[in-house]
Amino acid sequence: MIRFFNTLSGKLEEFRPLHNHEVRMYTCGPTVYDYAHIGNFRAFIFEDLLRRFLEFKGFSVKHVMNITDVDDKTIAGARREGKALDDFTGGYVQAFLEDLTTLNILRAAELPRATRWIPKMVALVEELIQKGIAYVNDGSVYYRVSAFPTYGKLSKKKLEKNISGARVDVDEYDKEEGSDFALWKKAKGGERAWNSPWGEGRPGWHVECSAMSMEYLGETFDIHAGGEDLIFPHHENEIAQSEAATGKPFVRYWLHCKHLLVNGEKMSKTKENYYTLRDLVGKGYDPMAIRYALLSVHYRAQLNFTLEGLKEAAEVIRRLDDCYAQCVSLNTNLRVMLGSPLLNPNLDLKSKLNHVRRAVESAFEDDLNVSKALANVFEGVRVINRAISENLTEPRNVQPSVDFFKFVDQLFGFDIAAYDSIPSQIVNLVIERWKIRNDANFMRDKSLQEVSDRLRDQIQDAGVLVKDGKPGEASTVKRKRRAWDQP
Ligand SMILES: [Zn+2]
Asked: In sequence order, which residues have a C-beta less than 8 Å from that of residue 87 and are 6 or more positions away?
């Protein structure tokens, strides 16, 4: 049974999608006025983990992530740089897509940009006006919060604080609880604006997500996820808009990820604890270590991000990498070693690893209990390393080890098993070199040593690292995959 914590009910609930094998999921994407920071990516990686797990369980996940390319911040940014709004946001959209690839985050099937869906937003606002939920005031349109009795049900904010008739025009607010919020904002001079029945203007941020999510996923869909900072007002307002318009429940499961701290404090540009992904990659950190650091704490728990922790994460990724490389080398080297390795017919890695895999899966089923899942991954690595060190290797045990890493990649996206084979012409070079190094004259014959060195260079030029064993032992080879990988 899969269970998730639903912010709406405040409880762990069994997860069952509305349509048998399909999960419809909407996640709030970036506001493209700057490069995304690691706090944003904690949420995006959590959502990626959620999606990978659901796909692993056999669901087809229809994932939509919006891109907010018009709001207070994007407009202010474009004005500051003297650019047209689309020119200003276009570069950040591109950068965001590149960042997703860097972190191995699966791309949503649809990434709608708000400015491409303005007519849908206008239609939604018109419907709310017709239903008496929204009203026009001086070219802007506002949502009358008092007309939606269950307002506050997601954030658990009390409506008593509603200031009757008070209106807020900004997209983000936290004090004016229960104030009427803008659905459509009248254009200010020089701003990018669109036509509407109420004159030139632009949609409010909240209405963007209601319109686009329902457009792609229907009036009621399964999962809406995001960072906890979006619960109020953004998601609360999305519910108010959508449910008032359709009269149906908007979203069945709301999942929110806790924000992160950096060095024990809230991340802030003024405190020098503010990192974009690009800052960290620029400092030479392995993107997979960043991914690990951001997902290794349960999504509803506080994560304290530090560079120290990131170094430890890099060490973990290196350990996984090394173990996998050994498995692949064994696959290759079994063909290289002419003498037979010690075989242990009693060793059954496959069933041991299957047991570990089942434990990882059931940790995920329990509201994505990632720390428990990772503990089991490390247990799997220990089992494999022990088998390797005891030289208990044979093809029937090597393949389950390789498969184990593919399983880990599928759920965690660490990209460990990305290169699982070494081209056969390279294997032939390795074999040729191994024969030369085992020649009785090798230690005395300079020309043999030169041939061996030349072959090693050739192999390494092809992106394969060679590590020589003791005399008489085969060299191990592994694919070079990270820039700082050393032989
Ligand atoms: Zn949203």
From this structure: 78
Q: Distance from the CA of 67 to the center of ligand 1, in angstroms? A: 9
Ligand 1 centre distance from Cα of residue 146 (Å): 22
Cα 205 to averaged position of ligand 1 atoms, centre (Å): 8
User: What is the pLDDT confidence band of residue 344, given thresholds at 50, 70 and 90?
Assistant: low
57 φ, ψ to 5°? -75, 0
Check: pTM over 0.85? Answer yes or no.
yes
- The HSE-up count of residue 223 (CA atoms within 13 Å, CB side) is 27
- Strand residues in 286-411 grouped as ranges (E): 303-305
397, pLDDT greater than 80: no
Q: How confident is the model at residue 202 (pLDDT cuts 50, 70, 90)?
A: very high
Check pLDDT > 90 for residue 167. no
Contacts 24+ apart (CB under 8 A), 197-202: 197/122, 197/126, 198/136, 198/139, 198/140, 198/141, 199/139, 200/139, 201/139, 201/140, 202/70, 202/75, 202/118
Tell me if 241 sits within 8 A of 210, measured CB to CB: yes
